[in-house]
Amino acid sequence: MSADLTEALRRWFGFGAFRPGQERVVRAVLEGRDALVVMPTGSGKSLCFQLPALMLGGTTVVVSPLIALMKDQVDALAVRRIRASFLNSTLSSDEAAQRLAQFRMGHYKLLYVAPERFRNPLFLAALRETPLAMLAIDEAHCISAWGHDFRPDYLHLGEVVAALPSNTRLLAVTATATDAVRRDIREHLRLGRNGRAEPDEIVTGFERPNLALNVTRVRTHAEKLERLLQIIEFFRTGIVYCATRKMVERVQGLLAEHGVRALAYSGAMADTERTRVQDAFMHGEAPVVVATNAFGMGVDRPDIRFVAHWDVPGSIEAYYQEVGRAGRDGAYAWCELFFNYADVRTQEFFIESANPPAEHVHELYAAIRDACGQGERGEASMSPEDWAARAGLKSSLAVRNLIALFERNGLLRRERRVGSPWSVITVPPIGDLAALRTICAGLAQKEAADRERLRELLDYVDARGCRHRFLLAYFGERTPPHPCTKCDVCHPVHAFPPRLMPDATRLTDLRKILSCVARMHSRGDYPLAAAILRGEAPDAWRALTTFGILPQASAQAIVETCEALEMDGYLAGMRLTAAGYDLAVGRGDVHPIAVFHTGRLHALTPPHTRTPPGAPAPPPDAPIPASGLATALRAWARREAERRQLPPYMVLHGRTLAAIAKKRPTTEAELALIPGMGEIKRAKYAEAILDIVRAHERPTREQ
Ligand code: ADP
Ligand code: ZN
Asked: Distance from the CA of 214 to the center of ligand 2, in angstroms?
């Protein structure tokens, strides 16, 4: 059987092996069982119904709300000579009738339909008369009011299922299903009821062990920027997610000021511009994209090394989907969520705008009817802001959402016309109060669900246990037994980026070397890394923060250490391995014991601190001094120096920086008491320094 399945997989799709979970689903379906499948986006859910559809007699009907994707799916099947088609609102009625006739004759192996189809009596009749192999419900979470994408039309599926012969298999497929949503799916689809056997539930593929998951509490934009610049310097290729278009522009601007060329992407941009940005990022023309959550569909660049969240996202699903774009190549990737409680307000605003209270719904609809009634041709056209003003509402975002909702429920029609900047609205002669009431009830329910989802995200932020475990449990996947080395709860990062201290502990030296290789971004070789660390490389490398930070080690010793690091699995050529990153970023208890014992590092430490032969090696967990504030101040001074094209000590002397870190002045008067902070320096730098000090008021994770 197994060989047969693999053979069928190869013959129809040309794939050599199943992905995790696929075979189990296919098997369950072939055995005649119903199944509920939860797997992340991109993990190959379509195959779970496509392959059995080809192996079973009869037609498989696939319900999907994603009309835009149906044609692509069907075309892709056609290339494989599989008879498939779709029925949705994009077809002319002739075309639809023709396809329906073909369906009745059993011509198709797969027929994709939009959920509205189940309101169509002709289609329902055809469904009763055609032998079906299976009903596959894609995006099955749409059936649940607790899901993020509730579609009332999905509720009709319950009756459809009840009318099906009990040997028609049911397969519900989704990427997002919490307990509540899974319960709703089972209930509405009557899985395991009416003589149906218990369904097989397959939840898999959510584990992403190569992602380092971090939440960092921040208080100011300056602090976010500081972290972001560090992350970009270290990981280079990645996405910065912001909550709003305005923030996207602002962050892009801030990055530009610091010499980082980043692309901006938001849903408000024209399609052509969006495609251009996406292509530029995909082709590696720019390493960083600053984007709203509109960015991501179809982004399959495998080597995204970091995903940073400038603002909190609205739900765990959204968050995991976004960080999931990092590290698709399986290599180490860094995810960091900047958490500032004030940002939660933005998400609350989105929730309120998406789900306005009943009185706003009624006021806006009354205003629209009124305006249309006064218009000459029974129509009206104005900007969302003007509609908001007319109805006495505050949020134009809410107006946009409501107008779309009115349209979907037949309470108005919208039409784009040349010469009119806003769509022209017409209303039916008699308002449908019942429909309005349904809308209000639906909005109230959705608001509760949205708030609950935001609350769950805040639980994640505050998690006391492993973040990986938290997420797996959230998606209902059994958690793996092995311990985690990649979250900030299990392993607080006590030094990111790696501290570039002049102290001579060997661990620090190793970190310096690894950091240098990481920052070279696959360019050059070990001798060049040695030259950079010794401060002897060509000027083009001078901008690296690792330039000249190991002046006392011989080039040969550094190269040999690189080779040792490679042998011990920390480096793979000019790339860091996962263990290499763990070590470089200073993850808790990952210590290069193996490397310590090689003895190759002796030449690295200055002669007077060299360990005499036979003496025990220094403890690997020797404390690393310096506070987060000191690091931040030095990083700032370095950047300031770069910007002004000065050597760093001309900005502020190391001693001055150290004194600031120690005294923590919070006013300019206090700052003036620190030696080296004369009037001229204060005029230039006081504001920036005080910002940094204030940002570090609370002890942070780094300390
Ligand atoms: P999902 O619906 O889960 O988001 P898809 O079904 O669209 O994902 O599959 C994502 C991609 O993975 C597709 O390009 C598909 O061809 C590919 N794929 C699916 N199964 C396999 C497999 N067993 N081996 C190789 N590629 C696969
Ligand atoms: Zn963990």
From this structure: 10
